[in-house]
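A reminder before we start the practical. When you read a complex entry, don't treat the lines as separate problems. The point of joint prediction is that each chain is placed relative to the others, so the output describes one connected object in space. Small molecules and nucleic acid strands, if listed, are placed in the same frame. In the example below there are two entries. Take a minute to note the order of the lines before looking further.
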Amino acid sequence: LNPHDVVRALLRERADRAPRERGEAYAPANIALCKYWGKRDAGLNLPITSSLSVSLGDLGARTRIEPLDGPDDRFVLNGREAEPNGSAARRVGAFLDRFRGADGPRYFVESESRIPVGAGLASSASGFAALVKALDRLYGWDLPPESLSILARLGSGSACRSVYDGFVVWEAGERADGMDSLARRMDEEWPDLRIGLHIVSSAPKPVGSREGMNRTVETSLLYRVWPERVAADLPRLRDAIRDRDFEALGATAESNALTMHATMMDARPPILYWKPETVGAMERIRALRAAGVAAYYTIDAGPNVKILYEESSENAIREAFPELQIAIPFAQ
Amino acid sequence: LNPHDVVRALLRERADRAPRERGEAYAPANIALCKYWGKRDAGLNLPITSSLSVSLGDLGARTRIEPLDGPDDRFVLNGREAEPNGSAARRVGAFLDRFRGADGPRYFVESESRIPVGAGLASSASGFAALVKALDRLYGWDLPPESLSILARLGSGSACRSVYDGFVVWEAGERADGMDSLARRMDEEWPDLRIGLHIVSSAPKPVGSREGMNRTVETSLLYRVWPERVAADLPRLRDAIRDRDFEALGATAESNALTMHATMMDARPPILYWKPETVGAMERIRALRAAGVAAYYTIDAGPNVKILYEESSENAIREAFPELQIAIPFAQ
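Here is the predicted structure of the whole assembly.
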């Protein structure tokens, strides 16, 4: 099964609908508390393990799509027209091809992203999730969220989680066609929860996430026990969310991230995404905890540090990290 | 079998000899290129895996021991008398007890160490190796080096490697009494090899090596594949030494150290010995390599960085690390 077959299987007779004038949608970025790290199928972005994330409220992407006359798509990101043959436009075009086929309609796509692009902050996750939702509106498909999640996954694995607000679990699934590899929202709210984004660097990473993931799966011996670690961490996080046990949530998310980075360091050649400031932030967070402030970190495939805390700790966190960009996952 | 039984089994009839006036000996510190990480027996310091090190030439400990009248040992380290009930004096006293029994003779022990104490630079390794050699001379035992290696191991695991100059392999062994767990020198010289010691911090570590090792063995899932990693790295290092293949030596040592730190990060709670300056030094070494300078690092259970290079790169290394303390393992 290729991605185009997956799209057809999900759309069925809807595939024939005519477009409206435009479709517009918003999708939040998300931060994994139990990481997605390793693919069992690169074509369909099927993961080796399940993962769990929290969506970042109003830090995300708003995307508008309109049919366009002419031979080429146009893609405008944050008010700037993307180079037609640049990597961003090519990735969006390839994704649209899965829906329209090679000789289908062209589109004008405009996206506003409130998060730093390419800095390990899952900008592609919110981008592809918003694009799928915008397509769903453009054509009036009115697909169930599970189908949108599968479609978003075809653009970027973690995009399948950005279809939802709140806490989201992406079940790895077992099927070769990935029809059971999709995300669902947990029915839980945590209004006091905050995610601070500590940007150490927005420069392109020396090793992209895809390459880092693949090299880890192929060469790391330590990666072999990663699925077992996830199998222990995921239920622990679910329980912590249900029990509003912030220490359990934070400690599990932090150690899960460290284990993911550990598998990278065991890749050959080893992969290190940390910068000196990354370790400096980790030290500051440990010092905050030693001083009684409940704060934990998680780190994705990059040098930036995401800080988990509750609203009651906001002053202490802001003092230690004055430049912090703060996400409120459950804003009222 | 306890450590005292091991001493008796090795000394046999030699145990009755009368001491000379004094015994004096030198032992170098050593840096593991394939790390010792994890014990199968804490009482006898028996390792789970074999390891390979290089001794640091004239960076080590010179120790003198004399019988003493009176009820208490005296221990002078770098010209300062140690607190009789401090941890250093207690550890030396407990080690001497394995030779003399509880009511045996008291000693005056004086040791000069040319390496920073307690900074993850194996000061205890050279210390115990020098003490065993000094005892051997005090009593005229004239034990073979393999026996000295076993005796030194009873004080500190990695001390069994500091009995020798040059490249040293510590075979893990299989016996419960550890009589086959000892180090041997490789018959190889590498006169151009240099080890730069980049001291990031000499402060006591938040988690001591023993505790870090034990917690990793008990709680890290990733640790389970460590023996497999060692089984691959050790022959690669032996080959690199025989072939004088510096890139293979450095890359293998560097990745082996990263894998050891990876197992720590997967301990629960995770263990992180790195400081921002540690990662900064790692970055600088990678930058040197990118600029064509063959330099690699290894890191023990602490924040300090040991840089491997050859004499021809000395100027570039000194420029990047002006404060470097330089060891010459094979000085003529």
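Discuss with your neighbour: The first strand of chain A starts at residue 23 and ends at 34. What might explain this?
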